[in-house]
Amino acid sequence: MRYDGVVVGGGHAGVEAARVLALRGLATALVTANRRAIGRMSCNPSIGGVAKGHLVREIDALGGLMAKAADATGIQFRLLNASKGPAVQGLRCQSDRELYEKWVQASLGALAGLEIVEGEVARLEVAAGRVAGVRLAGGALIETRAVILAAGTFLGGVLYVGDERTLGGRTGEFSAGALSESLKELGLPLIRLKTGTPCRIEKDSVRFETMEKQEGDSRPEPFSLQSNPFPVLPQVVCHLTRTTSKTAEIIRANIHRSPLYGGAITGVGPRYCPSIEDKVVKFPHHETHQVFIEPEGLQSHLIYPNGISTSLPFDVQDQIVHSIPGLEEARIAQYGYAVEYDAVDPTAVDHSLECRAVSGLYLAGQVLGTTGYEEAAGLGLYAGYNASRALRGEAPFRLERDEAYLAVMVDDLVTRGVLEPYRLFTSRAEQRLLLDRHTAYKRLARHGEQAGLLSSPEREKISSRETSVIKILAFLASTKLRSTGEAPTLAAFLARPNVTAREISELVPFAELNDPWVRLYVESEVKGAGYKQRQKMEAEKLAAAGSVAIPRDFGFASLPGLSREIASRLEQLRPETIGQAERIPGMTPAALTVLRVALARKRGRS
Amino acid sequence: MPDTTATIVAEATPPGRGGLAVLRLSGEKSAEILRRIFSPAGKAAPWDSPRHLTFGEFLDLDGAAVDRGLAVYFAAPASFTGEDVAECHLHCSPAVIHAVKQACMALGARPALPGEFSYRAVLNGRMGALEAEAANEMASFETALQAKTAGIAVAGGLQARLEALRERLLELSAAWEARIEFPEESYAQGKMPAREEVAAIAAEIRGMLARSNSSRPLRRGWRIAICGAPNVGKSSLFNAILQRERALVTPHPGTTRDVLEETVDIHGLPVILLDTAGIRESDDPVERLGVEKGIEAARGADGVLLLYSKASGWRAEEKDLAAVLGGNLVGLVETKCDLAAGGGGLPPPGLERLSVSSLTGEGLSALMDRIAHWALGTLPGEAALLLNERQREALQRAGEGLAEAEAYLALGNTEEVALAGIGKASEAIDEALGLKSREELYDLIFSRFCIGK
Ligand SMILES: Nc1nc2c(ncn2[C@@H]2O[C@H](COP(=O)(O)OP(=O)(O)OP(=O)(O)O)[C@@H](O)[C@H]2O)c(=O)[nH]1
Ligand SMILES: [Mg+2]
Fold first, then answer.
1. Helical (H) or strand (E) element with B196
2. With contacts defined as CB-CB under 8 Å, which chain A residues touch B417?
3. CB B86 within 8 A of CB B112
4. Is B310 touching ligand 1 by the criterion CB < 6 Å?
5. Could you tell me how many CB contacts below 8 A there are between chain A and chain B?
6. Does the predicted interface ipTM exceed a cut of 0.95?
7. CB A13 within 8 A of CB A380
8. Around Cβ B164, how many Cβ atoms within 10 Å?
9. What would the 3-class secondary structure string for B93-154 be?
10. What number of other Cβ atoms are within 10 A of residue A400's Cβ?
11. How far apart are CA B241 and CA A364, in angstroms?
12. In the prediction, which pLDDT does B449 show?
């Protein structure tokens, strides 16, 4: 067997990566243990959120799949932070888990040039520092020049419930221990991480009537500009309940039986996704904790109790659930567990997400130390695109931090590494006020277009919206509120707090303003003009200061004045610019000065 | 920055008035050089017993003894710079220091650049960036009093203040960011820190800047302008205090045209004296220009000595001048007190007056006392904050960031927009402290708020 590119893993990263390769005309194989698990939401049935929602929109602008899949299968949509400014408003949806994966599978199935191969990858074949192929567990070899490793939590995965431990990346699936060994042999630095999931509960055993209702937005906004009609599926209500002081008591009484606190688990879990035992132990002053009761789907007989992820033994999980109002008689269909797994230290890859040590080997998603479907999808798209460019002999694809959250994430991972599974936050971006969801297409669609990932009707739709917005902004800036006397321009009027674009729509002779996609964008641009202008200037200043290139062969080790630690860190990470060097943890102002001066001298000489 | 492998040598004490000077060597060759320039009096040699002061003779290039004093050796890393260090305690004679330093250089050391010892100390983790700055200022201070005040920064007063500010900014950002990033978390919503906190921190920064402004003369010297009508003896007094004939003196009014500036040590305080043109209405355009320059200098100075001559007495001209320049008067000086009183009257009784004669020297020491007393009086006591230009600039930037945040909020924006300004303020304070805090923000969020579904 021989392919241009091989994607290992059919999760959200693998799906985007495989799709990009295939759409770009490369013969692609997606190797997965189970073709029916492709595109599966292995944790909560939800997409988006603050920062994550932004990322999903960026994926759409670049021509990725996730936004469309979420729109097609969402059963409740909400705009988070709606009362705040557009920069931090985040779209989030509840998805129908089963329909989501079916939709993704169908979408991949329609791609010519993509083959799904069922099997377990046991080894990476590498010759002279280059990927040569992947060896399957049965012994078969798939030859290829590019591998995108998106194996999720399967590398050395161990499941924990109470004092039981089983090998496996997720419930009911195998653990790729051999592959983990193979990566170690290649000299890739592995780190041990942890994640967890709550139990699943039989829907008919839940007393919803005692719980607080959570409605979706009455006029939901889709993730993708291309989704029409929208929403597709009937929309549902979610519920909210809380743990009680009895819950806390049960957990405290059984904490010694937790693999987390018993010391069995050494991997580091994400602090923003703590288990319920973590919450109780670390925040003893909080009597109760929220539990979101999320539907698993329109037809599903299960619900997902979001907020009580745990790896306590089964009998304790039963007690915990029964101590929560509305769940007194709940039946657990599947118990919660913790997963410990290997990830590759992300500083082992460069800004293409290609391993520094093995060319042709790309990493994306949880194997690269991230958490979240959205992060995985973004990285899969990015790694896939870079792999395809390398295969076609094109220059690597790069994005700047003030251009996209995707760039912030890649740069954070590659230059800073991770101590816990990485999740995107809006505050990770230096200029987050420039990265609102309205401007995603303006920022990124040209890249999606260049990659050939956007169809021509899609491109048409994007550019016609941009044109409308430019036209209307120009009109607002040049037209007075009243034709007589001293009057502000429409733009100045709209910039005032509490004035909305709807209120001035009668004064604007362009019908496009009634399209919410255009109206919200216009409003955001006008109201944010001041601070956006300022952030743009700051971004330019930062870029100018950080853009000084560092030659590929620059000898950090021989640079006098650098501490040995910093020099070896720089040798390892090989930053491409001063800006990247500056973001490396442990860099000191003194070391940066040394570096700047050395670079200036070198430029002076050549 | 210079290469950091060379062995460097320089005085570690401020040049000038003390009885001892310390010449410091740092780098690999320190011990080797010390062996060649120092001959211990007893059996014990400093390079054999680090950290012990040893008495002996210092030798020049030819091996001739040029001074007797103490030497001490510190082995890396337990030294000021973290490298091998040798220190020579010499008598404070320029000739001695020169001879020993020349010897060191002939033996392979190169002169240290200003601040280079501290720079190495920072590189080797022996010193925080802030302490290094304070230590550097200390080395360049000309007078004992300045060094004492620099002690405030060395002891961590400034550091503690900046750290407290940083903490407050971090707390505020963490609380606001938690609400933004985790809108569905009830505990992240918690108690919202008041927007007024932004204004409160901004006020604190303004206060720090104001207090540091008032201690500025301590670093730069007090600028005192000698002003008065033509021919009252300004240039003569200027020369008398400097103890040399710096300014031209003639019997003709209107002699001085340019502003002359000289630094002088008055009771250990750095003072910059300005001699100015005599102030009067004039038809001569050159003199008029001189007068304007003089007035400008007087306005820009920290204080003014207003002179009138006993011979001509207190006239209408003097009254006018007192009205214009009396704002920051160091003293009212009656010159030429060796002469008999002439016409004119006496200054108004409220103004204390000192009588001096540049000719006989009478009253000069009382005038010096007066100047020193005035200078110390301008210092804000213990609360003085010693900021160098970089720290001042950073604090100013922090203030601007907070002003930006306040303005954004006033325009009806929500917290995430204000945080753009607050982020700048944090960054500026971090820079002043030589820190970075992005990750700490998340540490604080996750330790403070129970977050996560
Ligand atoms: N007897 C006596 N003569 C003095 C004394 N001080 C200055 N004079 C004389 O006064 C005259 C003017 O002195 P300057 O010092 O040049 O006066 P000035 O105020 O600088 O004059 P302009 O620069 O022209 O404004 C000279 O002839 C000095 O010798 C003093 O203390 N006693
Ligand atoms: Mg004169």
1. helix B196-214
2. 85, 87, 433, 528, 531
3. no
4. no
5. 115
6. no
7. yes
8. 11
9. CHHHHHHHHHHHHHCCCEECCCCHHHHHHHHCCCCCHHHHHHHHHHHHCCCHHHHHHHHHHH
10. 15
11. 77
12. 67
CA A134 to chain centre: 26
Q: How far apart are CA B202 and CA B208, in angstroms?
A: 10
What is the rounded average pLDDT of the residues B154-175?
Answer: 80
Is residue B200's pLDDT more than 60? yes
A435 touches chain B (CB under 8 A): no
**A590 reaches B (C-beta below 8 A):** yes
- What angle (nearest 5°) sits at the alpha carbon of residue B269, between those of residues B265 and B273? 55
B251 CB within 6 A, ligand 1? yes
A6 and A154 share a domain?
yes
A538 in a domain, yes or no? Answer: no
Shared-domain flag, residues A21 and A137 = yes
For residue A583, pLDDT beyond 80:
yes
Beta bridge partners of B304: B225, B329
Domain end among A533, A562, A577 = A533
User: What pLDDT, on a 0 to 100 scale, did the predictor assign at position B145?
Assistant: 44
Q: How far is it, in rounded angstroms, from Cα B434 to Cα B394? A: 11
Hey, are the CB atoms on B411 and A588 less than 8 Å from each other? no
The minimal CB distance from B420 to the residues A271, A273, A531 is found for A531
State whether A463 and A513 are in the same domain.
Answer: yes
Of A503, A533, A563, which marks where a domain is finished?
A533
Res B380: pLDDT: 54
> What is the per-residue pLDDT across A453-471, written as a single tens digit (0 to 9) for each?
999 999 999 999 999 999 9
Q: What pLDDT shows up at residue B241?
A: 93
Answer yes or no: is pLDDT of B147 > 60. no
Question: Is A290 in Cβ contact with B417 (below 8 Å)?
Answer: no
Q: Domain check: are A173 and A271 in the same one?
A: no
If asked whether residues A589 and A484 sit together in one domain, one would say no
pTM: 0.75
Range of the domain at A509: 455-533
Answer whether A42's CB lies under 8 Å from A24's CB. Answer: no
- Please report, for the domain that includes residue A230, its CATH number: 2.40.30.260
pLDDT at B401 over 90: yes
Q: Which CATH architecture has domain B8-112?
A: 2-Layer Sandwich (3.30)
A111, part of any domain = yes
**Which of B249, B259, B286, B357, when mutated, tests ligand 1's pocket best, judged by the most ligand atoms within 8 Å of its CB?**
B249
DSSP secondary structure, A531-554, as one string:
HHHHHHHHHHHHHHHH--B--TT-
**DSSP structure class, residue A152:** T
Q: Where are the domains of chain B?
A: 8-112, 142-437
**How many structural domains does chain A have?**
4
**What are A254's two structure tokens?**
């059984």
pLDDT score at B125? 65
Higher local confidence (pLDDT), B53 or A247: A247
Two domains, one topology: B8-112 and B142-437: no
Q: Ligand 1: does its nearest atom lie under 6 Å from the Cβ of B255?
A: yes
Homologous superfamily of domain range B142-437: P-loop containing nucleotide triphosphate hydrolases (3.40.50.300)
Asked if the structure places residue A326 within a domain, the reply is: yes
Contact A269, A197 (CB under 8 A): no
Instruction: Specify whether A348 is located in the same domain as A480.
Output: no
Q: Please list every residue in chain A whose beta carbon sits closer than 8 Å to the beta carbon of residue B401.
A: none
CB of A594 less than 8 A from some CB of B:
yes
* A542 is a domain residue: no
The verdict on A44 and A176 lying in the same domain is yes
Closest Cα partner for B215 from B138, B132, B149?
B149
